[in-house]
Every structure is written in structure tokens, then in C-alpha cells.
Amino acid sequence: MAINIGGSFTYYYLAPDAGTYFWHCHITPPEHLQMGMVGQLYVRPRQNRVPSTTTLYAALQAQQRDLRTACNSAADILCSNPLPAVNTNATGGGKYVYNDGDGSTAYDVEYAMQIHGFDPNFHFVA
Question: pTM value?
Fold first, then answer.
């Protein structure tokens, strides 16, 4: 869908997995990609909202039982957060990369980095 200059459009969608994704506009992509109309889209895991009084394993287990958010990684290629083999009793209250259920993807510092280059051949083809 094309958006007029100065206009806006709101998307609503369900992101299957936490992570960092790439976005760009879809109008004259060669030109706009080269002009920098690209960026990161951060999808935060539900695990970030788990209170410090609850174990991550229990929270992921509850998510798997809820039919709206259940994830069967054996049957669904978009699902990558199965219950870990061992319950480490790690509690919530932190920042995580994925819904790991054991605290293994915890982090405390975040930096956004975008590497971008200019290819004149790619740019002028369009």
C-alpha cells in the first residue's frame, strides 16, 4: 500500500519470534535503500515482562499451554522457543534476546548497529 508524502499508516501483525529484523520501504527499493530508508525493527520477547518473582521456565510453560501463544517447534518452522531441557530456576525481571526459559540469552547493554553501503551500479539500474 502506497502512503502519500507526509501521511502515515499503522500496521498490526503478530511477530512469530523475538529478534531484530530489517525493514525498508517498498517503493523504488534500489533508490530508497541507497538513500537510507532502512532500519531495524526490534521484537522483544514476552520473557522481558516476566516479574522477578516468577521463574522463566514457568512463564514459558504457561505460554506454551495457551492456545493463542503456543509454540511447537517440531511442527512450526516459525517457532524457535521450545521449553529448555533443564529448569535452571532463573527468574524474570531482566532483558533477554529470546524466550529461552532458562535465562541463557540475558543481556544488560544494547546497541543498535546498521552497516550500510552505497553501490552506484545497484543505485542507477533502477
Answer: 0.65
